[in-house]
TrEMBL record:
It holds the Pfam family Aminotran_5. This is Cysteine desulfurase IscS. Pyridoxal 5'-phosphate binds at G72, S73, N152, Q180, S200, G201, H202, T238. One of its GO terms (biological process) is amino acid metabolic process. The lineage of its organism: Bacteria, Bacillati, Bacillota, Clostridia, Lachnospirales. Master enzyme that delivers sulfur to a number of partners involved in Fe-S cluster assembly, tRNA modification or cofactor biosynthesis. Catalyzes the removal of elemental sulfur atoms from cysteine to produce alanine. Functions as a sulfur delivery protein for Fe-S cluster synthesis onto IscU, an Fe-S scaffold assembly protein, as well as other S acceptor proteins. The keyword DNA repair does not apply. Belongs to the class-V pyridoxal-phosphate-dependent aminotransferase family. NifS/IscS subfamily. One of its GO terms (molecular function) is pyridoxal phosphate binding. The keyword Metal-binding applies. Homodimer. Forms a heterotetramer with IscU, interacts with other sulfur acceptors. Coiled coil: none annotated.
Length: 396
């Protein structure tokens, strides 16, 4: 087995070798500025247009609806801030959920400080938004609904088509943070009435620091970065040509391998879930059991502290995550796990393992063996566990 056993693909993924290869000439040979007139550089304009086309095709969108950004966070910020500004004469109310990525939640909080009102919808125990609650939250002043396609921590996939229909019926814009879903599951913007969609290269075997925002034709959205005329004057700055080429190559690859990759990952995901549930006591699977990203496994282990678990797994060469990488290092339990109703002490003992196409059966067995050993070791040292066993008898 190769080390490390990398099971943190929701945090970031390996850039695929063919993606790197596609990018390289744009650093060393074809380094011209796409805005320059001479033919040496102008070719890069066409290269960028071709990548836009690839991405638009995958989404069922038009290529002039794809705007390159420096990643998912920027796309999320742009979607919220610029629509808020452009539609503030219509209303000041935005609806989102409690389990969004911080790129959405912190942007929403920023907007609240600037005169906007935000409803943060609850989710059920599986992490799904309730459509009736969404309908009830709509006001005459609602200008935007932003609900993530799939959650980065627990993998739950939202009823996006239904949410899009509700937004559409009410004439409200619908944005979705699809950073985890795009490249993993099929997405069609028209069928789901999606007006804006965020995605990021490094979550789909592309490079870091590049992503895009899909903006449907007709959506009034303000420029995010002022300067030159790039990205139809909405996002200035010399294009990240190698990054855009890498993103295009990654999207093409992800679309071509999606079915087979999903089949492989779902098989191993379900095997990992099955083994953990059958071999370790006092565990709880977080997230929806079937409406779930193909590569996501998230468990809470009672009487366990997630950070200790991660450190001991690391010593065995296994990379996992206790919440999202952004919140690790803080002692607050994940806002997502609290939103699905876990008490603090259970949320603290959580582990996310996110698989890739390279994950093997052998690795899964090794991870389960390691987990069994580590959890037994940690529980042996836990006074809470000792009390529990005294009261309830030994393990089932
Ligand atoms: C990773 C992630 C982001 C942020 O994307 P970056 O490209 O890292 O800025 C936003 N939303 C979700 C759901 C993510 O998983």
């Amino acid at each position: 087995m190769n080390r490390p056993i990398y099971l943190d693909n929701a945090a970031t993924t390996k850039t695929a070798p063919e993606v790197v290869e596609a990018m390289l000439p744009y650093f060393t040979e074809q380094y011209g500025n796409p805005s320059s007139v001479y033919s040496f550089a102008a070719g890069n304009k066409e290269v960028i247009a071709a990548q836009r086309e690839i991405i638009a095709d995958v989404l069922g969108a038009k290529s002039n609806e794809i705007y390159f950004t420096a990643g998912g966070s920027e796309a999320d910020n742009w979607a919220l801030k610029a629509t808020a500004e452009a539609y503030k004469s219509k209303g000041n109310h935005i609806i989102t959920s409690k389990i969004e990525h911080h790129a959405i939640l912190h942007t929403a909080e920023y907007l609240e400080k600037n005169g906007f009102e935000v409803t943060y919808l609850d989710v059920d125990a599986d992490g799904k938004v309730d459509l009736d609650a969404l309908r009830k939250a709509i006001r005459p002043t609602t200008i935007l609904i932003s609900i993530m396609y799939a959650n980065n921590e627990i993998g739950t996939i939202q009823p996006i088509r239904e949410i899009g229909e509700i937004a559409h019926e009410h004439g409200i814009l619908f944005h979705t943070d699809a950073v985890q879903a795009f490249g993993q599951i099929p997405i069609q913007v028209d069928a789901c009435h999606i007006d804006m969609l965020s995605a990021s290269g490094h979550k789909l075997n592309g490079p870091k620091g590049i992503g895009f925002l899909y903006i449907r034709t007709g959506v009034r959205i303000r420029s995010f970065i002022h300067g030159g005329g790039q990205e139809r004057k909405r996002r200035a700055g010399t294009e990240n040509v190698p990054g855009i080429v890498g993103l295009g190559a990654a999207v093409k690859r992800a679309a071509a391998t999606m079915e087979e990759r999903a089949r492989h990952e779902i098989e191993l995901r379900d095997e990992l879930i099955r083994q953990i549930e059958s071999e370790i006591s006092y565990v709880k699977l977080n997230g929806h059991r079937t409406d779930r990203l193909p590569n996501n496994v998230n468990f809470s282990f009672r009487f366990i502290e997630g950070e200790s678990l991660l450190i001991l797994l690391d010593m065995k060469g296994i990379c996992g995550s206790s919440g999202s990488a952004c919140t690790s290092g803080s002692l607050d339990p994940s806002h997502v796990l609290l939103a699905i109703g876990l008490p603090h002490e259970i949320a603290h003992g959580s582990l996310r393992l996110t698989l890739s196409e390279e994950t093997t059966k052998e690795e899964i067995s090794y991870v389960v063996e390691s987990l069994k050993e580590i959890i037994a070791q940690l529980r042996k040292m836990s006074p809470l566990y000792e009390d529990f066993i005294k009261k309830h008898g030994s393990e089932k």
